[in-house]
Structure formats: C-alpha cells, structure tokens
Amino acid sequence: MSSVKALVLCGGEGKRLRPITYYIQKTMIPIGYNQRPLLEYVVRLLKFHGINDINLLVGYKAEQIQNYFNDGTKFDVEISYIHDSQTLGGNGGAVINAYQEGGFDENDLLLVYYGDILTNVNLTQLISFSKDRKATATVALASSFEVRVGVAEIEEDGKIRGFIEKPKLEKPVSIGLLALKGKAFGEARRLIRDKTSLDLMGDVLPYLIAKGERVYGYVSDAFWYDVGSTEAYEKLNSKRVKEAFSFLP
Q1: Taking 70 as the threshold, does the pLDDT of residue 108 lie above it?
Q2: Please, which residues have CB within 8 angstroms of residue 45's CB and are 6 or more apart in sequence?
Q3: Domains in the chain, ordered, with CATH?
Q4: Among residues 72, 86, 96, 228, which one has the fewest Cβ atoms lying within 10 Å of its Cβ?
Q5: Residue 117: how many CA atoms within 13 Å on its side-chain side?
Q6: Coil, helix or strand for 243?
Q7: How many CB atoms lie within 10 A of CB 170?
C-alpha cells in the first residue's frame, strides 16, 4: 500500500533574497499580516490535506528551521530532517540524495515542494489526479502566468506600436510542486553518472518523459507566488495572502 509523504526543499542559501538571507533562512522569512514564516504556510497546507509525514531537506541555517518546527508536534504533524549531503548538486541532486537517505521506498508517493513557493493549491486533488493516472510524476501547473514587466509590441522595422503592461502568459507554468512515485528516483539515479548537478525540471522530468514514463501536468487556477527574490518578496501583498489562506487554521 503506497503512502503519501512530503519532501520540502528548504536548504538553499537564497542568494536572490540577499541581504535578507544573510540573517534568515529563506523559508523562514515572515509572510503576511501575522508574519508567519513562509515554511509555516507550507506545513499548515500539508496538514490541512492530511499529509502528516513531512520531511524537510535542510542545509543552510538549518538550526533556524529546526528550532521553530522541532518534531512537528506544535502543528500536529511528524517532521523529520534530512541534511543535504551535497554529493550531487542542484535541486534534482538534492532530492535524489534525500530519497536515498530518508528511508523512502518505491511504493511511496513523494510530494516534492519547493520551499520558496507560496500556494494554496488543492493537494488532495493533485494526489488523486496522480494516483488515478498511475503517474510516475505529476507536475502542478498554473493555468497562466503574469509577466512582471511590460512587453513591447514592435513592427518588423523595429518601430514600437505600444506596450502591454504585465500581460498574462496563457501557457501552463510549473509552480514548484511535484508528486513523484518512488520508482522515479530509481530512474533518475541512472542520470547521475559523471554529472555534478541535476535539475528536476531541466534534467529529471525530460529524462522520464524520454523513457516513456507516465508524466502528467495537473493544471490549477490556485493562488501561487514565487517568493524567491527580494523584489518578489517586497511586492507580496499581505491582503492577498490573507484571502488565499483564510481556510487554514
């Protein structure tokens, strides 16, 4: 019988969030009116959807995370910590390292969650979608993406017709959340060979697709926000956060 476990990536240095992350682990930066750590929103969302087995992949300033979340009792979940061994770089490498060290097996469905992403996506529906399709990997996708800069419309000779301010890209985009069957990690290990770094989206998923594995996209209109840069963090609207997560205790 397969079980669902969460693996949250929260070990990076958060270089795009400097100078904040010289002092605070990027997943611990305060969010919203209540100034809860970003990672707390992730943990509370997982708990809300019945995912109580949470594994935090830690590294940089791990003590800040461990001191705050401890064993998860405060949030009525079980939290384990996996320290990134750095034997293989990139987020794909970190996930493979964590899989090897975390005692997971091929029957587990592992919900891999980028720790600098804020979203209220329906995890119950995502998991059901993945299980119904017997997917090796399911990627959570937003139905569209608002480009954060103005886009120019130009003639062939370079003359500008006008600008569209922050247009919506009507294409599904990854929101940093994947459901992976244990077997996906066995396949991904074959990629390692002489590589020193692996990226989940750039290396692992294309490899699984090329191998004919069942890889699906779960498209959602849920709120999501990449908090991974100082500019993005400064522009995050606390009112919007409150509205998006009003259902959480």
Answers
A1: yes
A2: 119, 120, 123, 245, 248
A3: 4-141+173-244 (3.90.550.10)
A4: 86
A5: 20
A6: helix
A7: 8
